[in-house]
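On clarity, I found the account of how folds are encoded harder to follow than it need be. What matters is that the chain and its backbone geometry are given together, residue for residue. For the editor and my fellow referees, an illustration may be useful. For illustration, here is how one protein appears when written out as sequence plus structure tokens:

___
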Amino acid sequence: MLPLSILDLSPIKAGETAADALRNTLALAQQAERLGYTRFWLAEHHNMPGIASAATSLVIAHVAAGTQSIRVGAGGIMLPNHSPLVIAEQFGTLASLFGDRIDLGLGRAPGADQATARALRRDPFASSDQFPQDVVELQRYFRDESPPNGIRAIPGAGLAIPLWILGSSLFGARLAALLGLPYAFASHFAPDYLDRAVEVYREEFRPSEQCERPYLMLTVNVLMADTDEDARRHFTSQQQSFLQVRRGAAMPVPPPVESMDELWSPAERAGVEHALKYSFVGAPDTASAGLRAFIETYRPDELMVTALIYDQAARLRSLELLAAARTRICSPG
């Protein structure tokens, strides 16, 4: 059975606060754990009015403390924003607190605009170029208990925290293959390089201590509801959010609308729909058919799902319906 996992952005809804978003995130993680999902990841974004997971390590601790068995991690930490030593210490602390439940996914983008990246006290251009070396340095902090330069991550040294490379282009695919690390591709918002990235990762993979063979996780948007009409209406919250980002006016997650027709131009609609190409929206039978075809095409080792849903009850219901449909979606054959 193909593992199913969750990516959550801890969405801040219009009219609510970050505190509300963080409470909703924990409730979602607890629901995912009860339903048998494999892992629950949170993403680092900064200066985004609709995302409450900027201090990603702290939100991971919040979720891990409120759950028992589900794996919790970063999808991901944007390494250009941080020194590798600080991330090693943070995730070493998380692993010391919560044991073998912590994942560390690493991204190369800053997760912010250039002005915000500068406010984070990092040079976004130099740091992005330094990303492969930073990943190797981070691996060394976790592995070396007696480093030659005398700098140790405490906690962190000697802890086998699984590292992942995240990506939306060929760069991440090649780096994950070179280092022998699992690879998570952001198909949920960046569809253009999916086919080639999957091919490159599998063809160029080199076995490592962490992975003997390629391990590919693909992230897609999934929104299930009791009817196709309800699902499509709830999905308009995500469409509106993407539209506002494209306009340079990010905002809290808006409530759904009956129709998007009056909200976007034909060009904007085409752009948003292209970015959200790998979205499976509808009643269980409708969404399951698309998901099954996607899985048969790309054969991922794991599927991660996400969606920006305004209504918390609808978020929980979507996870429940997907879990109930997983046998016909994720079974081999």
Remarks:
- The mean pLDDT is 93.
- The chain has twelve helices and nine strands.
- Residues 73 and 103 are 4 Å apart (CA to CA).
